[in-house]
Amino acid sequence: MSLHAELKAALRKAVPTGYLDAPEDLRVYSYDMFARAEPEAVVLPESTEQAAEALALAERFETPVTPRGSGTSLTGGPTPVRGGLVLGTARMNKVLDLSRADRIARVQAGVITAQLQRAVLEQGLFYPPNPTSADYCTLGGNVATNAGGASGVKYGVTRDYLTGLTAVLPGGEILATGGRCMKDVAGYDITRLLCGSEGRLALITEASVRLLPKPEAVRAMSAYFTDLKATAEAVAAIMSSGYAPCTLELMDRAFLKAVKQAYDFDFPAEAQALLLIEVDGPEATLGGQMQAIARLCKEHGAFQTTVAADETERAALWQARRGGTAALVRQVSFMVSLDYAVPVSQLPAAVEGIGHIGRKHGLDVAVIAHAGDGNLHPMVIYDPSDAAQSAAFAAFDRDACNAVLELGGTLSGEHGIGLEKAAHLPRQLSPAFLRLAREIKRSFDPRDLLNPGKCESFCSNED
Amino acid sequence: MKTDPDVLSTDAPQCDRCGRCLSVCPVYSVSHVETDSPRGRTDLTSAVTSGELNPGPRFFEAVDRCLLCRSCAVACPKGVDTASNVLAARAEVSRPHGPGARLGEAAMDALIPHRSLMSACVRTAGVFSRLLPADKAGRRHFPEYLPQMLSGRGVPPITGRPLQKRLPSLVPRSPGSPNRGRAVFFTGCFYGLVDFGPGLAAVKMLCDNGFDVLIPPDQQCCGAPALFSGRLKSFKTVLRKNLRSLAAVEGPILTACPTCASVLRAHYPEIAARMGGPEAEQAKSLGPRVQEALTFLAGLSSLSLPGSTQIRSAAVHQPCHFVHAGGDPAAVADLMHKRGVELVMNGETACCGGGGVSSLKNPDLARELGSAAAGKIAASGAEVASAACPGCVLQIGSHLGKAGSNMPAIHPLEILCPIR
């Protein structure tokens, strides 16, 4: 398949330094961490106007457009399964405005999340959402997937910081939503509707986000437990205690073993789980909070709690958490990282249930969790080329989805739906929800040209 | 692509396409094109290896634009080494060649394994370089109308007589110094043939600290230019010659050039192991003996630093082949502190784009990265810029000059042990 010659020529003219269609370029714009599908051309616009021109042309030639940030997703979201164009935002990478007075930053969609974090920190401000891939994912991608991360327990997710967006609608019309006001109830909240819409409704090109004052200090602690369910109970207890940790990460023994091998990260032999706990705020208040949280952990079975003495010790804990997934996958042939969330009170039941389902189907499962907000990432180790193991994984996936839903949970906390979760969604969402979702999709994108083939179960045009 | 077992390890870890490497790749930071990313290059080289992809011009662009800085290998949680994949592709994938490229390769094959010929060429070039125009700071530049390849970079002053002609092959330890035995000095081409200052400083510091320094007369180029351009046959020739020269003598092997250090230490054992034969064993025991001189000196107990320096402050750039191949940035800071030089900046600059062979093929990249690094260094307000790598020193010096700064760029050894 190849693009209409007239469209090619027009795209080259519209985005003169950002049009690619060599086989090598098509190949490297085919993937994320989950899937592959090659586009017929890649465009890398530098402005909203260039992007709008590309979308107008795509509509004229009935060509699908798949938006892409850094391609770091785990669900196949930015893979162009119906061909057409990949529209990459990497060159729209400017922080356009940063106002201390308004506590607002306005950025282009291709700005790297850590780049924004650093820029605001220089002004004594703080942009809290912190996905594990913050050093290389884009803010536009964060908005499109409503990315979360470890700071969600205290500070919420990307959606909680959005005050306005600039986006391009299929066909090329430019849409502005919200603005830079903290309070804004003029009209429907389309800003938040677009957040998490996974590139199905509009192409996000700019975002305005609100900023907080930078916390004076942060302190980290490790707490080791001999029982995974007890660890989750400690998490629920901390969350009901009235303290507000800014990090509450759970890592199970399988995960810790991998980290130990890869990074020489030592942990007590009897440990079944580790909690990485952080509190932030005025320096004077942190010691007392850490003590109280350590006490709660001990009441729930922690046998060792240690406050990180300095930034080096804190960094070692974070290296374990951030690098652990890769450390694990380095040791096994294949692993899939899943994403569910449950109300935090149900976390003990959820970790117990996941472990039980894994054993039932004879699969090795490692569990990590952004535990404080009930967001679980079970990692299932199996060989996809083995038919029996693949069948076991499919059964695990089905049972785990059911278990999570029974606990009042959701099938995706932060990774999104993309291709990975599309088939499961109707089990969670009501018929009325699904009907509305389809109608919303149709009113934004009547010809289904924007990121087609994704989230199909709930926003396909075909009734 | 048929894979050469000498170059490409088959048990290499698989890339999971997580994208972490995008955050450290200097080339991606300039172009923001996935084809220019480590993840992209690794995907393309493995597709060509498996026969899934027929390599076209964009494939060769992708592998040629890699600066081989190895930042991605350090950042990758799975240990995927894109530079190795790129080297394998450069060595193994046959490409359409223009006559110019063939001539360049023939010249390289002739010069790299033959030091005396290379030395003669460098001296001849020295005579011609004096005809080039100089700026106020005394740097000589290629005129702007010369091919873009030269990217307006300055020409290093070529000092005429090579280091080995200035020093005896065994330099005895300084009188009164404690006897610490013998050290072997590997000059490298740049510090051996073009600019003798850092080598002289290294040898003097070693002698002052009680080493008898042997400079083996039959040592050759380390082979980096051949290895990095995919000229594996020439590389193996110098590898054999250098093993003959270095394996026979005892003592730590030190060099002022971090690229030489990393090639001798890491690439020699890796490639010799796959060649088999006696070279495999020799290279295996040679590797751990090789160290970059600054890191070695900083590790000595009760270091002696005679003399003094006029320089009060320096901005230190950390070369990629220094920090990603066993050099210790803290060692440089430590030595500068002992010398009484204030470090106003230590390693806050990204890759300068000097990148040897790659920078000549990709002047646009080299220019953009060079001016970014030099801009940061100039703004630091230091008296001198310093980098433990000839490529970085040239690149940063040239771009400082272009930015209108008079700040000189020198090797840290020349600050620690002023000779000229």
TrEMBL record, chain A:
In this protein, which residues make up the domain named FAD-binding PCMH-type? 35-214
Extract the SUPFAM superfamilies matched here: FAD-binding/transporter-associated domain-like (SSF56176), FAD-linked oxidases, C-terminal domain (SSF55103)
InterPro entries per the UniProt record, alphabetical: FAD-bd_oxidored_4_C, FAD-bd_PCMH, FAD-bd_PCMH-like_sf, FAD-bd_PCMH_sub1, FAD-bd_PCMH_sub2, FAD-linked_Oxase-like_C, FAD-linked_OxidoTrans_Type4, Oxid_FAD_bind_N
Domain of life according to the entry = Bacteria
What are its cofactors?
Answer: FAD
Indicate yes or no for the key word Transferase: no
- UniProt-listed Pfam families: FAD-oxidase_C (PF02913), FAD_binding_4 (PF01565)
Keywords, sorted A to Z? FAD, Flavoprotein, Oxidoreductase
UniProt name for this protein = FAD-binding protein
Automatic annotation (TrEMBL), chain B:
Q: Known catalysed reaction(s)?
A: glycolate + A = glyoxylate + AH2; (R)-lactate + A = pyruvate + AH2
Q: What is its EC number?
A: 1.1.99.14
Q: Which cofactor does it need?
A: [4Fe-4S] cluster
Residue limits of the 4Fe-4S ferredoxin-type domain? 6-35, 56-86
Alphabetized Pfam families for the sequence? CCG, Fer4_8
Taking the record's annotation, the residue ranges forming a coiled coil are none
Under the heading SUPFAM superfamilies, the entry gives: alpha-helical ferredoxin (SSF46548)
What the record notes about the co-factor is: Binds 2 [4Fe-4S] clusters.
- Spell out where the chain crosses the membrane: none
Q: What is the lineage of its organism?
A: Bacteria, Pseudomonadati, Thermodesulfobacteriota, Desulfovibrionia, Desulfovibrionales
Q: Which InterPro entries match?
A: 4Fe4S_Fe-S-bd (IPR017896), 4Fe4S_Fe_S_CS (IPR017900), Cys_rich_dom (IPR004017), Glc_ox_4Fe-4S (IPR012257), Helical_ferredxn (IPR009051)
Give a short account of what the protein does: Component of a complex that catalyzes the oxidation of glycolate to glyoxylate.
Keywords annotated in UniProt: 4Fe-4S, Electron transport, Iron, Iron-sulfur, Metal-binding, Repeat, Transport
**Organism's domain of life?**
Bacteria
- Write the protein's name: Glycolate oxidase iron-sulfur subunit
